[in-house]
Amino acid sequence: LIAGPVLFSGYRVTEAPLAGGWFTTSDLGELTGGRLRVLGRADDVINTGGEKVVAAVVAGVLAAHPEIADVAVVGRPDQEWGEIVEAVVVAREPERPPSLEQLRAYCRDRLPAHAAPRALRLMDRLPLLPNGKTDAAALKRG
Questions:
Q1: Mean pLDDT across 52-59
Q2: Which whole number is the average pLDDT over 53-68?
Q3: Which CATH number does the domain housing residue 86 bear?
Q4: Does any domain span residue 102?
Q5: What value does the mean pLDDT take over residues 111-122?
Q6: Number of domains in the chain
Q7: Buried/exposed 39-48: b ≥16 CB within 10 Å, e otherwise
Q8: Is residue 20 part of a domain?
């Protein structure tokens, strides 16, 4: 939620004004020591076994892995867990990609255990939207 004197007053296509002057952005963030860090979008949260995982946080950790050239993280439906964390990876050396176990261990050293990927999908390149961002919807469709 955001509010302030320079915030617009509402949308033309809806009769209801912004609730109490507040606008819902659907962005997730954390406020630490007076600094706001944007973590991702609310619709990019993976619910795995009742635990919430921010896909962008896991992707940020995996992006620092030396064997990964590009990465995205999505939730994949799972009967047991509700969703599982899936890492979609473009390997620096396609003939020698990192294994799922390597990536899980790497994440467990840096994140809570439930955030470690339970699935790995290797790709030559990630699908992109016209604006250059990763097409997460295409990745979720498989």
A1: 94
A2: 96
A3: 3.30.300.30
A4: yes
A5: 97
A6: 1
A7: bbeeebbbeb
A8: no
